[in-house]
Write a structure and sequence with these properties.
Blueprint: H1 3-7, H2 12-26, H3 28-50, H4 56-69
Helix pairs in contact: 2-3, 3-4
């Protein structure tokens, strides 16, 4: 792998794809937390750039829907308190 490939910014979809490839190696719990963190950061950045606010429950629902798509258990509401 070249150095410039390592320093490239990855899209959210690319990050989720890499995590999916690493799923068995890192374990289900770490995979779930990593996917939730990537998706949460992505949603918060979108809301920031659009100049909109998002409620914690809406953020929780959106991230848990993504986790459901990956076949993971949902994150608890209290996990999102650190983000908002």
């Amino acid at each position: 792998m070249k150095v410039e490939e390592v320093n490239m910014k990855m899209s959210t979809e690319d990050k989720l794809h890499v995590l999916q490839e690493l799923r068995e190696d890192i374990g289900e719990a770490a995979f779930r937390r990593a996917v939730a963190a990537v998706e949460t950061k992505h949603i918060l950045e979108l809301m920031y750039y659009k100049g909109k606010r998002i409620e914690r429950t809406e953020l929780c629902n959106r991230v848990n829907l993504t986790l459901w798509g990956f076949g993971c258990e949902p994150m608890s509401y209290s996990w999102f308190r650190a983000w908002l």
